[in-house]
Amino acid sequence: MTTPTHWSALRSPRLILAILAALALTACDLSLGRLTARATEEWTRSYPLAAGGEIRIGNTNGRIEVEGVEGSTVEVRAEKIARAATETGASELLPRITIKEDVQPDRVSVETERLTGIMIGAAFEVRYHVRAPKGAVVNVTTTNGGIGLTALGGKVIAHTTNGGVNAKDLTGGIEARSTNGGVTMDFAQLGSEGVSARTTNGGVVIALPETAKADVTASCTNGGIIVSPDLTLTVTEQSRRRLEGRLNGGGTPIDLQTTNGGVRIKPRGDGG
């Protein structure tokens, strides 16, 4: 039975801080000092994918780039990068960076595995470069790194914590999420799939063809909402923090949200 004295000790701020510090020490990455040494390795794979199949890329540290191409083959090139204070340390860390594959006819899943144990004075990242069939469903997630998407026509899910999402020449729907980073989306045309962008610390910018038909909702907490006068938007609700309207009569649902940042809706080719 725990006595009141014991409960008081457990509530001690110093003890709580000590417990938190101990938990932090059991985490994987305790990078200290200047990591001037570097070791790299390239990992490449090629997979067939059924029409309308899904590609999943899961990462922890590093950028993910996906480009839509013709054909039915998924090509993945991953750059493994290990950093440490010494060449020996970097070389010893590199083999510990592993990538897990789960491949089915209609799904290709590639994921950076978490490193186990304590890592002191070292760090790593994996940068993914993917060429995917244009019509594939693309689901990519990273914790520390940006996401770049080009010429994709299927449904796209792109989530990152520390980094931005930059998509261009899209023709399908997208769900883009970030905590610390902006979301920029450029559409060659809108499809029937919805468009959603949400971030906490960062702005949201969307570029659309002037003839695009959409139902638009935009909101922000700390920032403004700007709609280019070159777009034909019929506003149904507007305040400083929220806007709803129909673009060219309405159509594809577009939902844009940010907490600390602005929202800008503009036509393609407008560099402003």
Structure description:
The chain is mainly beta and 272 residues long. It folds into two domains: 35-50 and 66-130, no CATH class; 146-272, no CATH class. Helix content is 10%, strand content 55%. It has three helices and 23 strands. It has helices at residues 4-10, 13-26, 87-93; strands at residues 29-30, 37-48, 54-58, 64-69, 73-84, 99-104, 107-112, 119-120, 122-133, 137-144, 147-150, 156-162, 165-170, 174-180, 183-187, 195-201, 204-208, 214-222, 225-227, 233-238, 242-247, 252-260, 263-267. The strands form three sheets. Strands 6-7-3-10-12-14-16-22-18-21-20 form an eleven-stranded mixed beta sheet, with no helix packed on it. A hairpin with a 2-residue loop joins strand 6 and strand 7 (107-112). The longest helix is centred in the first third of the chain and has 14 residues, at 13-26. It is globular. Mean pLDDT is 89; it is low at 1-32.
Total helix count?
Answer: 3
Give me the secondary-structure category: mainly beta
Q: How is the largest sheet built, in terms of strand order?
A: 6-7-3-10-12-14-16-22-18-21-20
* Whole-number mean pLDDT: 89
Low-confidence stretches: 1-32
The ordered string of helix (H) and strand (E) elements is: HHEEEEEHEEEEEEEEEEEEEEEEEE
The end-to-end distance, rounded to whole angstroms, is 67 Å
Strand content: over 45%
Backbone shape: globular
Helix proportion range: 10-25%
The number of domains: 2
